[in-house]
Write a structure and sequence with these properties.
The complex is a heterodimer of chains A (about 325) and B (about 300). Chain A is built from 13 helices and 2 strands; from the N terminus they run αααααααββαααααα. In chain A, α5 crosses α8, α7 crosses α8 and α7 crosses α10. Chain A is globular and about 90 Å long. Chain A starts with a helix and ends with a helix. By secondary structure, chain B is mainly alpha-helical. Chain B has a single domain, classed as MetI-like (MetI-like fold, Orthogonal Bundle). Helices cover about 70% and strands about 0% of the residues of chain B. Chain B is built from 13 helices and no strands. In chain B, α5 packs parallel to α13. The chains are: A mainly alpha (about 325), B mainly alpha (about 300). At the A-B interface, α6, α7, α10, α11 and α12 of A face α7, α11, α12 and α13 of B.
């Protein structure tokens, strides 16, 4: 077990170093920080002093090391666009993105699994066909368009739900803000969460259905029927339990996708999260924010992959015996 | 050649799959509408001189004040929505097709190389593909696009934007092609006919192109079709986010972004019709891709 974790961690380090290198190369070679900081009027001596002060006269790898060191301490430089420290900018927006992503995942799981179980057990009913056709439309529907259509129907035409922003948030501790504290903020969360969760929901539904069909053919299900167990106990106790392993894995892997796709949803709904910050930074070529986001998202993905690997290890006994 | 295509299994399968035929028909209509746009579109949306503010925000047929010269209504500048959609479809399809083509070529080259060379080359290339596969393609495309845009001088940005988008989306899609091609290459590499070709001294690149490559056309075609749907969505998303194609070359995504501003003032048609076109296009592509996957995979029959 320990060896397995250690080897996975060791494999993750080069990935992070390479991404860090790309982030640093961006940071160092795109745009000229000295010109940006000095402005028009300066003497050559002032310029040299600033170059020395920023450490730009040091060899490349010394600068890279310093960059990594600063990044480890949460210091990603100053945003060109907003003139604020990038670390603080990201930290301020992280709660909004995470709350949205978690709500969307929970929604996708809570609706997708029952739909998948139903279509798996009752293959040829009208409702199943409806669900399957609907899921294909769901896969073909671009996230941003779904958001716009939801806004059109529920905000413009029906006037039931707000169309932008996060509503009144409550501060918890120093870093966290939550929108779960008031009904007004929860109302703001509904449309973005549906927009973000629908794709995952169709994915989960199709996956659960495929797995259910596979498992229901297995011998032990026939055997359970022969033993005279009730249908409910077979469907849920025996079949569903065995389908959930791959489903949980996929949901874990997809969580990274949800965080990434939240950038589209956040733009449509003007949700003040990291994704909106990223899109605005790309449009303004704000390199420090881009490179910090790149590092952060790489870290998130490495951690998710690691967690999924560990989950496999815990779930699949064959992996344990091979090592 | 034609008779051979007509009598093939694939054609038989196709003419017995109504969903696939309907999808192909819709796809064909959309492609024709896109590429014949300069000749069949009722107006030229690029021609600023023909626009009149008097015509702005005309509603589509079926609502009060509509007329047949603008069947789907007009936008804030009096631009015909139907014509704008046809020209936008052109840009969307071009960007989608070219980026998939780029991804296919890159994927095939890397996949053949990795599968045929093996060893360290294989390990490094596939590790890169694995890492990239776990990364959502829209994020890759957005970051690549952002970085290239930052590097390019400001004056060249608009002119090169289409190629930047094609590159960014293509780069985000290559790993699935590379993995498939590599898998088939590994299988074919050790077959007797490849060994025979090697024994008589056929150079490696020729073996790869003439003997190994033809074996992967099926899977590449399937992934290519499904990737086309992804590429069209990716381009529309980037354009919607405002980091895609410049406003002088409006794609469907750009049209949706423009229309989004008029949602609250009641002119829903400016954004809904390009949106529906996009959905129908992607749905047709996905249905065709699904059918192709099932038809080429005898295991599922």
């Amino acid at each position: 077990m320990f060896g397995f974790i250690a080897s996975r961690l060791l494999q993750a380090i080069p990935v992070l170093l390479v991404v860090g290198f790309i982030a640093f190369a961006l940071f160092a070679y795109v745009g000229d920080p000295v010109n940006m900081l000095l402005g028009q009027d300066h003497t050559e001596a002032q310029r040299l002093a600033l170059v020395r002060q920023l450490g730009l006269d040091q060899p490349f790898f010394v600068q890279y090391g310093r960059f990594l060191c600063a990044a480890l301490h949460g210091d990603f430089g100053i945003s060109y666009r907003l003139a604020q420290p990038v670390g603080a900018l990201l930290a301020e927006r992280l709660p909004a993105t995470l709350e949205l992503a978690v709500t969307a995942s929970v929604l996708a799981f809570a609706i997708g699994v029952p739909m998948g179980v139903y279509t798996g057990i009752h293959r040829d009913t009208l409702v199943s066909r409806l669900f399957m056709t609907g899921s294909l439309v769901g896969v073909s529907l671009p996230t941003f368009l779904l958001g716009i259509l939801l806004i059109l129907v529920f905000s413009v035409w029906l006037g039931w739900l707000p169309s932008f922003g996060r509503g009144p948030v409550v501060h918890i501790g120093r870093w966290w803000t939550t929108g779960f504290a008031s009904w007004a903020a929860i109302r703001c969360l509904i449309l973005p969460a549906i927009t973000l969760g629908l794709f995952q929901m169709t994915l989960i539904m199709r996956l659960v259905r495929a797995e259910m069909l596979e498992v229901l053919r297995a011998d032990y299900i026939k055997f359970a029927r022969a033993r005279g167990l009730t249908r409910r106990s077979i469907d849920f106790g025996h079949a569903l339990k065995n389908t959930l392993v791959p489903v949980i894995t996929i949901i874990g892997l997809q969580f990274g996708g949800i965080v990434a796709f939240s950038l589209v949803t956040e733009t449509v709904f003007q949700w003040p999260g990291m994704g909106l910050l990223l899109v605005q930074s790309v449009a303004a070529a704000d390199i420090p924010v881009l490179s910090a986001y790149l590092l952060l998202i790489a870290l998130v993905f490495v951690l998710i992959n690691l967690a999924v690997d560990l989950l496999y290890y815990a779930v699949d006994p064959r992996l344990r015996s091979r090592r | 050649m034609f008779a051979r295509a007509r009598d093939s299994d694939l054609a038989y399968d196709f003419f017995h799959a109504p969903v696939a035929m309907a999808a192909a028909l819709i796809g064909l209509v959309l492609i024709l509408a896109a590429f014949l746009a300069p000749w069949i579109a009722p107006h030229n949306p690029m021609d600023v001189a023909s626009l009149s503010l008097m015509d702005s925000f005309k509603p589509p047929i079926g609502m009060d004040g509509a007329d047949w010269s603008n069947p789907l209504g007009t936008d804030n500048q009096g631009r015909d929505v139907l014509s704008a959609i046809m020209y936008g479809l052109r840009v969307s399809l071009t960007a989608g097709l070219l980026s998939v083509l780029f991804a296919i070529v890159t994927g095939i080259v890397i996949g053949l190389l990795a599968g045929y060379a093996g060893g360290l080359t294989d390990a490094v290339l596939m590790r890169i593909a694995d890492v990239q596969l776990t990364f959502p393609s829209i994020l890759t495309a957005l970051l690549v696009d952002g970085v290239i845009t930052a590097v390019l001088p400001r004056t060249m940005r608009d002119a090169l934007q289409l190629y930047v988008i094609i590159f960014a989306i293509g780069i985000s899609l290559w790993p699935s092609f590379a993995r498939t091609v590599r898998g088939s290459t590994l299988v074919e590499r050790n077959k007797d006919y490849v060994l025979a070709a090697r024994v008589i001294g056929v150079p490696s690149w020729k073996i790869m192109l003439r003997h190994v490559l033809p074996n992967v056309t099926g899977p590449v075609l399937v992934i290519g079709t499904l990737s086309l749907g992804l590429a069209v969505i990716a381009e529309a998303t980037l354009s919607f986010l405002g980091v895609g194609l410049p406003p002088t070359q409006p794609s469907l995504g750009t049209l949706i972004r423009f229309g989004d501003d008029f949602l609250f003032s009641g002119q829903w048609w400016v954004t809904v019709f390009p949106g529906l076109t996009l959905i129908v296009l992607v749905l047709a592509i996905n249905l065709l891709g699904d059918w192709l996957r099932d038809a080429l995979n005898p295991r599922l029959r």
